[in-house]
Amino acid sequence: MKAKDVARLSALRAILSATTNAAKTATPIRTDTQLVALLRKTAKANQEAVEEARAAGRQDIVDKEEAQIRILEEYAAQSGVQTVAGDELRSLVQAVVSEVAATGVDKAKQTGEAMKKLNAKGGPLDGKDVDRAEVAKLVKELTA
User: Fold this and answer.
1) Start-to-end Cα distance in the chain
2) Least buried of 6, 112, 122, 135, by fewest C-beta within 10 Å?
3) What are its GO cellular component terms (predicted)?
């Protein structure tokens, strides 16, 4: 890069490396949603590196990793992929859980059925950037 933006170059190299590695697995990155999930996963790993560097007293590494996190979040925000979180996510999950409960599905199987409906092709969360762990937590909370 001619601008000599070392942090951005490092972030781009990390993204390219992660996508290349993902291409060699059973689930290569094929959609924008998958790429945004990869960006968020990489940013989360960098956040853990920041915490470790702080504990070790390495401010230089903290600064470098935080710059990379900002760049990754910038790319994720500009991706055009809709992010679902907070109240919007809760209302979507609540609607699906109510729908599953109304069908008379056994209480023990409601969590699995709700997750299937939420994540199915054409479902409420299809093609959207969401934290799947948060979705699972909400479904378990609402079906309990």
Assistant:
1) 53
2) 122
3) mitochondrion
What backbone torsions phi and psi does residue 110 show, to the nearest 5 degrees?
-65, -40
Give the HSE-up count for residue 122: Cα atoms under 13 Å, Cβ half-sphere. Answer: 0
Q: What is the pTM of this model?
A: 0.72
Torsion angle (degrees, nearest 10) of CA 51, 57, 58, 61: 20
Per-residue pLDDT of 82-132, as tens digits, reads 777 778 888 888 888 888 888 877 777 888 888 888 888 888 877 787 888
Q: How far is CA 86 from CA 34, 43, 128, 135, 140, in A?
A: 20, 20, 14, 10, 16
Assess whether 102 and 132 both reside in one domain. Answer: yes
In residues, how long is the chain? 144
